[in-house]
């Protein structure tokens, strides 16, 4: 049983490290893209930078939550740890929702509005 707990602890820590790595690499790539690929003008580049950075943080938070769940449930499933995990998940879920609203301009449960381009008269698909 001790081997199982050590293994789950290691897996949880590895997933946490992956989450941090995703955030750091995402921040670096977003910054590089912002600094060296200014194609949309200053306002468009800044908006894209914020969106790219927000996406990296969102993905990293998902990894961090997964690592916390594995370590809490598999390693030390005490009532106190489960309550702490619930609080952590609640806070991170709020952060994820706020970031998604910031990045995409809509809540996670709202459908994306499809933008249709008007078809040109006289053009047919063949």
- In total, the number of domains comes to 1
Q: Could you report the average pLDDT, rounded to the nearest whole number?
A: 81
The secondary-structure element order is HHH
* Strand-pairing-aware structural class: mainly alpha
Q: Tally the helices.
A: 3
Strand content: under 5%
Report the end-to-end length measured between terminal Cα atoms. 65 Å
| Radius of gyration from the alpha-carbon trace, in angstroms | 20 Å
The count of DSSP E runs of length 2 or more, i.e. the number of strands, is 0
Helix content: over 70%
Low-confidence stretches: none
Largest sheet: none
Shape: elongated
List keywords for this structure.
126 residues; mainly alpha; 3 helices; 0% strand
Task: Kindly summarize this structure in a few lines.
Helices cover 76% and strands 0% of the residues. It is an all-alpha fold and 126 residues long.
């Amino acid at each position: 049983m001790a081997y199982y707990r050590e293994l789950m602890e290691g897996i949880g820590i590895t997933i946490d490290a992956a989450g941090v790595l995703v955030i750091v690499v995402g921040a670096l790539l977003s910054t590089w893209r912002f600094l060296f690929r200014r194609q949309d003008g200053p306002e468009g580049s800044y908006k894209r930078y914020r969106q790219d950075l927000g996406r990296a943080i969102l993905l990293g938070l998902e990894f961090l939550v997964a690592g916390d769940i594995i370590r809490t449930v598999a390693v030390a499933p005490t009532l106190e740890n489960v309550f702490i995990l619930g609080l952590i998940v609640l806070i991170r879920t709020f952060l994820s929702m706020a970031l998604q609203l910031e990045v995409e301009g809509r809540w996670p449960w709202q459908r994306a509005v499809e933008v249709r381009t008007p078809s040109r008269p006289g053009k047919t698909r063949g």
